[in-house]
Write a sequence for this structure.
C-alpha cells in the first residue's frame, strides 16, 4: 500500500502552526522567527519531507522537464546526442523524458501528443514524420520546440544540424585528393540527410570535372544501422574501374571493406573508402576507416541549451537560429595513400 | 509568450454549463444528455482541448510515468534495455523518464532524489551506488523499485539480471571444449558482474582439473566501453603457453584479436578467444568473435513489466522475484576449431 507522503499540512498540525508558516519557514522567510524555523526544519528532516513535484508544477506552470524524441536508442550518434542533452539538463536543473520512436512516424505523433499534455516545458525532435500536423499543434500551443539532426523547414524554430551537404562534399573531395577518379556512393536510405550528402558528393565530383554516373549511386535496402549493405556494395564494386567509395554510414563502409577482402582488392591501394559518423567501429576495424566526424554530443548540448533558453525567456521575440555543428574528415588507413598519412586517431 | 491551454472551465463558460458537466460529458457519462455531450465534444475538438497531465496526476495520485537510471546511454546493451523498457511502457500507456548517470554514484543519488518528488510512479535502476541510503529512502516512501543488470541485494525488490557466474562458466567451458588448457581472463573493472563472471571462469577451470593461475587473471585499467584494454591484453598474451582467452566485454576481446595479429599468432588455431555481450562488432570484426549473448531487450521488457505490475497492484503483498534472463554462447570463427563449426550468425 502506498504510504501518503508528508505534507506541510502534517508538519503544521504537529507543531500547531499554519501550513503557510511551515512553507515560509522552509523557505527561510524573515516573517518566521528562528525558533519556529528550527522546529519546522527539524520535523521536516525527521519525516524526510520532500516538496511534491506535481503540486509545484501546477503552482509554477512549469515542469522543469523537457521531452526528447530519439529515432533510435541503440545508436552511437543518438546515444551521444542524448548524453549531451542530459549533461546540459543536469547542469541547468532540468530533467528529460525520452521517447524512442524507432524511426516510426506514428510513434513520433503519439510521442508529441503525450508531451503536449503539460508534462514538459519544451521538446527536442529529430523529425521523421511523413506529415507535420503534430508539429503544427505543438507550435500552436506555444510549446518551445528545437529540431536536431533533421528539421521540418516549414516551421520557425531553432535547429541544430550538421551541414550534410558540405560533409558529403568534404568526404568525396578527400577521395579525389587521394587519387580516386571513379567514385561510388552508397547510402542507407533516401532520407533528407542522405539526399544532402549525395548532393555534396555530386558537387565534389562535378568540380573535379568528372561526369556523374548514375550506376555509381546506390541506396541499399539494408536500412538498419547494424546492417552492412553487403549485397548492394557487392553490386557497386562490380562496376569496372571503380577506385573510391563514399558510404553514408560507417557500417556500410565496413561492408564495403569486407567485400573488398572477398574479391582480393586492396584498400586503400585499389579502392579508397570513407564512411560517415566516426563510430567506434571505424577506429577498431582493420583497416581502420576514414570517416566524417558527426559530433552528437555537441549537438545534444547545443539543442538543449537553445531549448532551455527559449523556455526561460519565452517573451523575447525569438530570433530563431540554425546552428550548424562543424564536421571534419578523419583520415585513417582506408584512404591513406599518396601524400595522405593516416592519423592515429 | 505562453498561451494558456483551454480548460474545462473555458468550455463550460462558452456553453454556459458547469465545468463538472463538461468533465462528465467528455467522460461520456450517462448523467449528461446527448445534445450537451455533442456540443462539448465539438467545442473540445475545435479548441484542441487536452486534459492537463499535471492536474490529472495530482487528482489521481499517479503520473503514469516511470523513471529509468541508465549508467551509460552510448552503449549497445543499455540501449537495448532502454528500447525494451520503452516498448513495454508504450504498450502499457506509460511514459519513461531517463536519467543517464554516466556510471557516477553521485548522479545516481541525485537522480533517485529527483524521482522521489512525486514525478514518477516507480523506478528501474541498474545499481552503481557506493552507498545505498538513497535506495532506502526510495523504498521507505513506498515507491516501487525494480533492479536490472545489477542489484543491491540488501533490499526486498524484484530483480531482473543475467546469471553472470553461469555465463562466465559457459564461456570458459566452451574454450575448454575447443581444446584450450591455459586460459586467460581479462575484465574491464572489478564490478560485481565481472566478479561473478570470474567466479564462473574459476569454476570451469577447476572442474577441468586445471590449476587456477593468478597471472592469467587481469583487470584492465581501460574501463570505458570504447577501450580495448590493448596494453593489458598484451601482458596477458606474453604468458607462455596461453591458448585461450575469455574477455568480459566484446571490445576487450577485439583488443586481444588485434594484439594477436601484431605478434603473428593465429586465432582460433593458436589462441581461441571469446567475448561477452554479442555487440554488433563481434559479428562484424574479422575473425568474427564468439561471445555470450546478453539479452538487453528482453531484460528491459521484463523489468518494465514487473515494475508496472507492482505499480498497478500495490496492495498485493509482493512475492519479489529474481528473474534470470537466459544467456547462451554464440560460436563464431574466433573459437571455431576441432569439432566446433562457426555459426553464420
Amino acid at each position: 500500500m502506498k504510504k501518503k507522503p508528508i505534507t506541510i499540512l502534517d508538519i503544521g498540525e504537529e507543531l500547531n502552526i499554519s501550513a503557510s508558516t511551515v512553507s515560509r519557514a522552509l523557505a527561510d522567510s524573515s516573517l518566521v522567527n528562528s525558533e519556529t524555523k528550527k522546529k519546522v526544519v527539524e520535523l521536516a528532516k525527521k519525516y524526510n519531507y520532500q516538496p511534491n513535484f506535481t503540486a509545484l508544477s501546477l503552482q509554477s506552470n512549469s515542469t522543469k522537464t523537457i521531452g526528447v524524441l530519439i529515432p533510435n536508442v541503440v545508436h552511437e550518434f543518438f546515444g551521444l546526442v542524448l548524453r549531451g542533452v542530459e549533461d546540459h539538463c543536469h547542469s541547468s536543473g532540468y530533467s528529460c523524458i525520452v521517447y524512442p520512436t524507432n524511426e516510426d512516424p506514428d510513434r513520433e505523433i503519439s510521442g508529441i501528443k503525450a508531451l503536449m499534455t503539460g508534462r514538459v516545458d519544451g521538446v527536442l525532435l529529430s523529425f521523421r514524420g511523413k506529415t507535420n500536423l503534430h508539429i503544427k499543434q505543438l507550435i500552436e500551443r506555444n510549446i518551445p520546440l528545437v529540431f536536431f539532426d533533421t528539421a521540418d523547414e516549414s516551421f520557425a524554430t531553432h535547429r541544430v544540424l550538421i551541414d550534410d551537404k558540405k560533409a558529403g562534399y568534404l568526404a568525396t573531395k578527400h577521395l579525389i585528393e587521394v587519387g580516386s577518379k571513379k567514385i561510388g556512393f552508397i547510402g542507407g536510405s533516401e532520407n533528407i540527410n542522405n539526399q544532402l550528402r549525395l548532393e555534396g558528393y555530386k558537387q565534389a565530383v562535378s568540380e573535379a570535372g568528372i561526369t556523374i554516373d548514375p550506376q555509381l549511386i546506390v541506396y541499399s535496402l539494408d536500412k538498419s544501422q547494424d546492417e552492412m549493405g553487403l549485397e548492394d556494395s557487392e553490386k557497386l564494386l562490380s562496376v569496372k574501374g571503380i577506385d573510391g567509395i563514399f558510404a553514408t554510414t560507417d557500417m556500410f563502409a565496413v561492408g564495403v571493406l569486407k567485400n573488398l577482402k572477398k574479391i582480393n582488392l586492396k584498400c586503400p591501394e585499389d579502392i579508397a573508402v570513407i564512411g560517415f559518423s566516426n563510430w567506434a567501429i571505424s577506429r577498431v576495424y582493420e583497416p581502420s576507416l576514414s570517416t566524417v566526424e558527426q559530433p552528437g554530443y555537441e549537438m545534444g548540448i547545443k539543442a538543449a541549451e537553445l531549448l532551455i533558453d527559449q523556455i526561460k525567456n519565452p517573451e523575447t521575440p525569438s530570433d530563431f537560429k540554425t546552428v550548424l555543428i562543424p564536421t571534419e574528415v578523419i583520415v585513417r588507413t582506408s584512404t591513406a595513400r599518396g601524400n595522405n598519412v593516416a592519423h592515429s586517431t
Q: What stands out?
A: The mean pLDDT of chain A is 89.
